Amino acid sequence: MGIGEIIVIIIIGIVLFAVLSMRKKQTGLNPERNSEGSSPGQQDPGYQESGRGRGYGKWIGGGLGWVFGGPIGVILGLALGSMFDGMNHGKFAYRGTPRGDFAMSLLILSATVMKADKKIVRSELDFVRNFFIGQFGEEEGTRLILMLREILKQEVDVREVSVQIGQYMDYPVRLQLMHYLFGIAAADGYYHPDEVDMIGTIAGFMGISSADYASVKAMFVKSTGWAYDVLEITPSSTDEELKKAYREMAKKHHPDKVSNLGEDIKRAATEKFQKISAAYEEIKKQRGIN
Question: Are 279 and 233 in the same domain?
């Protein structure tokens, strides 16, 4: 028996113990003999207020999350358990769709970048809140922000989470995630080195090439040759190589690549596409190309 199977068995055991313990506590409260005079069918107020029955929520959520969703499942399970005592249903449920997967990845990676410089500033929180509400709507955005607050309290294994995202997300979607993360880093008007390094670490674990990472980074962290970095070429490249590079980058980052995530995410991808066009026009201007 491998270590993975042993871990699964232990987690299942914890879940079963928690469920049985809660059922025993609930059924052990005889309404007819309640010393507080509660009517039949009512739970003992003392038990409800003590919080003893609520403590299992995040462990059940986290345990099942690991079995069915890997490290990302654990983080989301613990967040949901802490917020709603294990109630992963109704409007708070995680929905396994491309759009839902993208939103969950945004939440976890947002928390990781926000904590990279050992502090969480208001401008970053506002950026994430406005992004979620703008991209997913008021109700969904508010729900996601509540989950983010819980995720920020947890320790995230950057490697495991990033590798899992890299395994189930298409490459264009991962590139779009990079674009979003640099937006968080820029929220306070300063690209903190620790935040930039964290984004680079995430990119590496997600399987993004160093050239593509440098390209996305150059869209935000401007340097003297930023336009060349965006198009992944050098100043010595010929005009023909410039045109070819632009066509390839335009194809790689075309908004249609993430159209399955909804029109709102497609609009965000369009902004990145426009930065590629801006880099192309900048080089053409420098070279006097019409």
Answer: yes
